[in-house]
Each structure stands twice: as structure tokens, then as C-alpha cells.
Specification:
Layout: E1 13-18, E2 28-35, E3 49-56, E4 69-76, E5 97-98, H1 113-116, H2 122-127
Antiparallel strand pairs: 1-3, 2-4, 2-5, 3-4
Length: 133
Amino acid sequence: MSALIAEDELVHEDDFVWLEDIDTLDYVRQSLDRLTTRRGKPPYHRDGRMVGYALLGPGAKPSRSSGTFRRRVFWLLPHDRDTDPDGLYATGAPAEAVDPRTLAPGSKGCKTERSEGGPPSSAMRELGITLPL
């Protein structure tokens, strides 16, 4: 869950590979998965679909106990807002969801009014301001 991801777990991220256009997505789910490589497309074993993943730099060290690397994977489930706009997440978003526009390598991102499915207040709209939550 994004709330459980600490920025210090992301220090070796070099870049993201996006498999979809994130400009059309209000949010993506993120998790730290144990993977056997620093780079390359990871296997995906959840319902739904993988939207993107992180690439790690050469300074990333594998776990001494498992030999795996912790890399971020971005994903969506079939009942998420992009495919079911009037469903469970018509408003609000899952705990592990963040606005993909707030993501950068080494930064866990945040929720925004857009990712939460709520319209900005009228004062915010008049001023042209959008803020992360």
C-alpha cells in the first residue's frame, strides 16, 4: 500500500516504464513487489492489469535472504474507476492508489482531488488551483 511505502525504499529508482497513457487515469495502485531483477518487465499475477513499473539503478542491492529486489509496480483492478466509472470507486480511491501525475522515481506520489474522484471546490476552480491531498 502506498501509505506503507517509505521514500527511503525508493532511493534506487532510475525511471518508470508506463504501459498505458497515464494522462487518462485518475489514479493507479502501487505496491512494492519482490522481483528477481532490477530492470525489465516483471511478471504480473494479480487480477486486472499492470500499468507500469519501476527500473532500479545499479546501486540497488538484492535482499541477502531472498536475492530479490523490491520494485514498484503500478496496476489497476477490473472494478477501478477507469473501467467502472459509476462503481465502487466513483468517488474515493483505494488506500494504495495515487495520482500518477504526482509520481517520480524516488517519490511515492500522493492522492489529489482528481484521484479521489471529487470535484475541486468552486473557489479552487475559479483560481485554477489543484492541490495534492
